[in-house]
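Q: Got a minute? One more chain.
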Amino acid sequence: MIRERLRGGGWDVVDTPTGSELQAIKAQPSGEPKPKSRGVTLLTVVHGWKPDAERWLFSAFSHTKADFEALVVDNSGDPGIAGWLQNRIAERLRVVTLKARLGFSAAVNAGIDAAAGDIVVLFDPGVELKGDAVSPLLEALSDPTVMVAGPFGLRASGTMKEFEATQGPEVDAIEGYCMAFRRADAIAIDGFDPRFRFYRIADVEFSFRLRDRGGRAVALAGLPLEKHEHRLWESTEPRERERLSKRNMYRFLDRWRDRKDLLVGQ
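A: Always. Here it is, folded:
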């Protein structure tokens, strides 16, 4: 009951290697005026590593042909990065600076809430666009049966305890390196589950909840993208990332282990 009341107030009790602590699960309202509507929001969450964010921004503006905005959620807690991003705000670039650092899913949700596009394409900042990767994703989502699309698809490997990369096109889930979905669909399911503070499996769980509304996940192989170093993985101590990954998998299985009807390969 205590945990439920805390969650209702926007807080969660998180077990860490040094004990339990209270952490925010939702960003505070910004109070900023409503932005101009766009066809698509290119969304990324910056946890640090300014060169990655700069490379992503440059590639997004260089190659995107659709009516877009770039939306950067600053979850770094770094005044230097905050100042750098504020100096780059422009007509098609907006920044959401979080007052307190949030877990991965809650930070993504802050971006979904703020997005001005009907479609949201979530990118890891370690991804670099090498061409127009966005237009094919928008075309895929023009099919009302498609709920989520992206270049990196996953299928369960005999059991939901393990997922493997596949070119699809029909897949069980889309990896969060680059995933496109309708903002309205994401809002309808309350976005990413904020209990997934570490990023692993959060994208799979989000894909399953979108597909549980009756739609498909589609992988578009060969989009012009390059994956660079994944900072959240590399910066987490190996034992800790194994612990957090296992916890997220158990959380995913608690909800979805009996939903074999959502596995396209079964």
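A: The chain has a mean pLDDT of 89.
Q: Perfect, thanks.
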